[in-house]
Amino acid sequence: MKKREEEILVRAKSLFSKRGFHSLTVSEIVDSLGIARGTFYLYFKNKDDVYRRVLERTVQEIEKNLKVLPLERPLEQLRRNLLSVLKLIEEDRETASLIFYHPYKLNLEFDEILEEFYGKVLSLIERALLKGMEMGIVRECNVKVISRAIFGAFVEVGKGLLKGELQSAEEAVDELLSFGLRGLLEGRNDWRN
Amino acid sequence: MKKREEEILVRAKSLFSKRGFHSLTVSEIVDSLGIARGTFYLYFKNKDDVYRRVLERTVQEIEKNLKVLPLERPLEQLRRNLLSVLKLIEEDRETASLIFYHPYKLNLEFDEILEEFYGKVLSLIERALLKGMEMGIVRECNVKVISRAIFGAFVEVGKGLLKGELQSAEEAVDELLSFGLRGLLEGRNDWRN
Amino acid sequence: MKKREEEILVRAKSLFSKRGFHSLTVSEIVDSLGIARGTFYLYFKNKDDVYRRVLERTVQEIEKNLKVLPLERPLEQLRRNLLSVLKLIEEDRETASLIFYHPYKLNLEFDEILEEFYGKVLSLIERALLKGMEMGIVRECNVKVISRAIFGAFVEVGKGLLKGELQSAEEAVDELLSFGLRGLLEGRNDWRN
Amino acid sequence: MKKREEEILVRAKSLFSKRGFHSLTVSEIVDSLGIARGTFYLYFKNKDDVYRRVLERTVQEIEKNLKVLPLERPLEQLRRNLLSVLKLIEEDRETASLIFYHPYKLNLEFDEILEEFYGKVLSLIERALLKGMEMGIVRECNVKVISRAIFGAFVEVGKGLLKGELQSAEEAVDELLSFGLRGLLEGRNDWRN
DNA sequence: GATGAATGAGTATTCATTCAT
DNA sequence: CATGAATGAATACTCATTCAT
């Protein structure tokens, strides 16, 4: 990766995360870097191209943190993954903003990138659930529905952290896990026991 | 409400839900109705104006279905509300699409409309949780985190229904409730008992 | 003249004098009268038509005050005419505004209306000058130039009154006349003596 | 100043002076130069912007010719200034057209540009008058009124030259001066003596 | 590699005018 | 006489993209 290309990608990510796809112009990207308009097109086919690559990178960064640990302790693995992603959000608001607030229907290609990412996360959750059931830790349930529910709960808590309406990622993940495992009803025990 | 205005709003909702705000042009709206460009501006100040009104209406339609039932049975109330909204989604994919896939950062005013709506839903959930705790049905928990989690789970399941990746709204809601109430761990009882 | 027609003309004059031709819309005229857009076109062919008729009327009102008195006392006649027009300006700012600040090159037809009016005023002045020369009161001069100069001086003083930068019409006319007759140089007598 | 910018300004001045602000379109400017619509907006913020800059330039060109000579000979200075401006008008009809026939009430900002210019010319005249009085050359008079009168006379003669209704600028200025200094009444001497 | 002037298709918006009721 | 909904031509302005230097 060329230095210039990298430079543009970094700046573009920052700007797209603040301004969204449509309101950010190519001029703003190049002006903010002090480079010529033509230089931009030396490294990127067009505006869609930068956006796609920004999205891809961002998704990859998160995926690096999604470890497919050995499945002996599926719930622990899930906990770790959720926590590591929420931590990332706390640290890198640009990434979070892109992932959570990406406008769908911009362009089918863009949507696919996130859909694929979401799909990966979903299947990670599904696999943990299935393994848990196999091991007798997790009760029988509709995995399709529940994995989505977990995913959604997680995403929404992530947004809460991003907006500053929730405070600590650690606390949120524990609360989330506890909720997911024990449910809301009174009279349960901690799942780790 | 004038007939024309209604006609435009209905068509605009349909088109915005399919195409998003930016890619839909005013020309497409009027062409699709076979009316003159000027006619559009007779009823709407500008493109933002239609979009705002479409969004407002859509939110209102859903809110009509969010009944603030007497809180004696908070969990039952929650169940009904979630179900009625998911049913709506099943029936009216345009509404669902607008609500779930609205691009944030389009325009602060637009975002506020949905934020306000989401806020209402969140507080509905919070109130049910708090009442449940008061009544001793729901165990102590961080209401801020858990209400978001429930909301997120619900939204994500809604999206799944919309995309056709999940089948029945009824089944999904029951599964969701059971998940939320009993959690995932083996060896729990049904909350209704 | 129909009552409605009159009503529209009066309002249009008022609005055109404040807003100018281009920035005033037909909608504003009809809205301000509480009548339908169609009603306007019952009495006027188009927007140009009202403007033309407003201009014509306004010019006619002034012309009524421009008396072609018997020429025995040409300078006295000139004084009276100038005074009567400046008085009108003091009283009717709408008329003054239209006459003095009409944007040329709007439309040839409009320009002609004022040009014709200006032409009349000029020839009034010219005739007074010529008569004065004939009578030996006025010294030999280039009537074309001087009549324009008198006209211009008069118009500019009118604008000064309109803008409130000059105070009394009477005083201004006397000063103007004295200037025109005696000139600026020291050591002259009053022309009436 | 970039070559293109200059090119556009020159053409715009020419077109505005012939067609006025409203009837001239941006398309006409660019078509007449054979450049793209976007090129125009590279150099000018909008249509108002070109007009404003054309007006400012034009005023500046004239102001360069308005010399604030030492005041020992105030009337001679006035004569020179009036003459130099009238000469300019003879030579540059576009400038003259813009200055004399600019439609007021287009836009407050535009009006201010000319008002400021007119104000400068007026104060130039006022200062000459006051100095003249101080030196005992000019008789006591209401300077506010008389300076306006001189200005108006001058403007109107300028218009006459522009329209071709008056012939020579030199002759007109001398006639104008003689009129202003000696007045119209018979039996006066030349002011230079 | 880098530049930045030039491009022009695309879009929102206005407003005088018409005409069926 | 009066209405006012509907029209659509006209226009300003934006911005992604190109290409000669």
TrEMBL record, chains A, B, C, D:
One of its GO terms (molecular function) is DNA binding. InterPro entries: DNA-bd_HTH_TetR-type_CS, Homeodomain-like_sf, HTH-type_Tx_Regulator, HTH_TetR, Tet_transcr_reg_TetR-rel_C_sf. The keyword DNA-binding applies. Keywords: DNA-binding. Pfam families: TetR_N. Residues 25-44 bind DNA. Residues 2-62 form the HTH tetR-type domain. It comes from the Bacteria. This is TetR family transcriptional regulator. It comes from Thermovibrio guaymasensis.
